[in-house]
Amino acid sequence: RDAFAVAAERVRAGTLSRDDAHHLFDDLFRQATPVPDRSLNGFLAALARATSSTACITDGPALALALFNRVCREEAGPQVAVPTVCTYNILMDCCCRARRPVLGLALFGCILRTGLKIEQITANTLLKCLCYAKRTDEAVNVLLHRMSELGCVPNAISYSIVLKGLCEDSMSQRALDLLQMMAKEGGGCSPDVVAYSTVIHGFFKEGETGKACNLFHEMMQQGVEPDVWTYNSVVDALCKARAMDKAELVLRQMVADGAQPNAVTYTCMINGYATSGRLKEAAKMFREMKSRGLIPNIFTCNSLMTCLCKHGRSKEAAEFFYSMTAKGHKPDIVSYRILLHGYATEGCFPDMIDVFNSMENNGIAADCHVFNILIDAYAKRGMMDEAMLISSKMQERRVNPDIVTYSSIIAGLSRLGRLTEAMEKFNQMIALGVQPDKVVYHALIRGFCIDGDLAKAKQLVSEMMNRGIPRPNISFFSSLIKSLCQEGRVMDAHDIFDLVIDMGERPDDILFNSLIDGYCLVRKMDKALKVLDVMESVGVEPDVITYNTLVNGYCRNGRIDDGLTLFREMPRKRIKPDTISYCVIMDGLFRSGRTVSGREMFHEMIESGTTVSISTYNIILGGLCRNNCADEAIALFQKLGSLNVKFSIAIVNTMINAMYRVGRREEAKELFAGISASGLVPNESTYGVMIMNLLKDGAVEDANNVFSSMDKSGIVPSSRLLNDIIRMLLEKGEIAKAGNYLSKVDGKSISLEASTTSLMLSLFSREGKYREDMKLLPAKYQFFDGFC
């Protein structure tokens, strides 16, 4: 056995290094015995198939070309036989594998010049070189015309190569035309499963899902059975399009047709369900995959972890992560990023840091993306000292911060008003060559606007424009003004409004409406009207939102007549009142005790054809109950119910309370009992209304049972509700029962209100009515004895 045959075996075994290959050729040039072309070709072919996964040789095709080049350059002469067409075929294939198709075409020219006979494999490799060189038009021409001139007949492989080339160049329609030509000509070159699968995959890549599915069905009608690769292509595309029901049908059809799903199939399905937020189905697919004896890969596991984290179930994701590790799956850096991001989103910072430490202990170095997750998590929660500590660790590990790192830090500092530090980081990033983007500038401009330093904000706007970054648009300033107005800082908001005009921007209706709403919130209606005048003077037409805001402002400030005047002005301004307009004015009328006018407005709304919403019914029924018209409200509620009007739980709560108020207790209990049957879910207010009314009636046990039902349903009682219950029980002398509820007060999420504490002090004082019953209270409340 010659040295080249042994070397070829070593290549396949992964034990031959690049240096060994060159030493072999050094020996070749020194020896006297010629090397047969078959031995050389076998060795070159082995190198051609050596991939990056091979232990010693990372790029076999490129090495094969380099060695052959040595043969040609050093003129080995009689030591190496003249290259045959087989040699050239191997080398052309190496050119394709090494992504050097132009060199492959040059080698084909050598074949022509030497007069060697063109073989079928030579022609197919030529097609491959042309396609890799993005010369698909020439490839089609060679396939359909030139191959016959070269003495070759195109076969299924020839067509598949060109079909793949067309699809990779986003010319799937031309590929389909070629496929149909194959089918029409028939013979020994009819389209096979590879040809169909290639074009189907091409259409999916181009987003032509309909064409891909049609071709898939046509393929089966032609009697060509799809293989696993075909099915996987269809399943993957449908999953990416979030068409999970269709993907599930294809999977079931695949199993029925005897094509066994593999790990790729299930990974596509799991990832599809995961990205669609359908955790239950993703978990089911994962179990089905394992039941078939298929081993999930790291991508499959990461998809499931991502889905769990998106659903706020990072703890479960962590359990899955550690079980995956225990079973021999080595998590990659993506796995750690998913878990870190999940914990970061949920604010579980100790767990987040534990995962970070575990990652480094397992030999996976944190990259910039990982550090950015940690920094952003702390920055968004205002924990800037912790964020800066992570930033320092990042520098210690010699990981360079990027634009995302600086964006998170600068935004976090700006939100906290630490603008000097924010600017220091801004200057630092520029000095390090990291160019600021729109996000960074927006964070700083917003920070300086909120801080009141509009001159600096304006300077930053000019600076970002000089850098070619578009200045903040009107939406940015509208959001800023709205935020300030909600905080009651209307004058600051107005200053920013002036800044927008000073910058040469034309305020839009949203910006004006935000400022008007701000003045309405601080009860400065005259200034709100002045903004309206400015709005009209600059040619911005007030819309229905403008008037709804002003009418609501008047109503909330008790100026219902002014609100009505403005409401009546709307049609004259060619602004048709909408559902919100009527709801605002009706709510104002009912709150001011003008029940008749409220009813009349409701009838006007119906006659105008305006849509009546659930909120409308809530306002009408609540308004009637508030104005001692509970019987009328109950009658309307029952009438609407008979018309199959769907109510919200808020309306039901209002009606239960109204029924108790007028002594219609049994109806109230029936309404409460039928909530679930009507498709609604009781909330804390529902249970609170029932409990307080039952306690008022002295039905303490029934009230306790309702509270237990609330507890079982997973609803956590608010501090306010517990205080109401405790006070009611104490006033009724139910000291032991009150003690049971007092034991639920933890001083954190639930604490005693001042009125509850005051009542307890008066009841358990020396002259108090229930001093002797103090021992019935939980031990931690015995301290009242000391005060008394």
Detail the topology: elements first, then pairings.
Layout: H1 3-13, H2 18-30, H3 37-48, H4 60-73, H5 85-97, H6 101-114, H7 120-132, H8 136-149, H9 156-168, H10 172-185, H11 193-205, H12 209-221, H13 228-240, H14 244-256, H15 263-275, H16 279-291, H17 298-310, H18 314-326, H19 333-346, H20 349-361, H21 368-380, H22 384-396, H23 403-415, H24 419-431, H25 438-451, H26 454-466, H27 474-486, H28 490-502, H29 509-521, H30 525-537, H31 544-556, H32 560-572, H33 579-591, H34 595-607, H35 614-626, H36 630-642, H37 649-661, H38 665-673, H39 684-696, H40 700-712, H41 719-731, H42 735-742, H43 754-763, H44 784-787
Summarize the structure.
The protein is mainly alpha-helical and 788 residues long. It is 70% helix and 0% strand.
Residue share in β-strands: under 5%
Mean pLDDT across the residues is 86
Uncertain runs are none
- Portion of residues in helices? over 70%
What is the CATH superfamily classification of the domain at 366-470? Answer: Tetratricopeptide repeat domain
Largest sheet: none
Structural classification? mainly alpha
What CATH architecture label of the domain at 366-470 applies? Alpha Horseshoe
CATH class of the domain at 366-470: Mainly Alpha
Tell me the CATH topology of the domain at 366-470. Serine Threonine Protein Phosphatase 5, Tetratricopeptide repeat
Radius of gyration: 39 Å
Gap between N and C termini: 108 Å
* Tally of helical runs: 44
Would you report the number of β strands? 0
Q: Which term fits the overall shape?
A: elongated
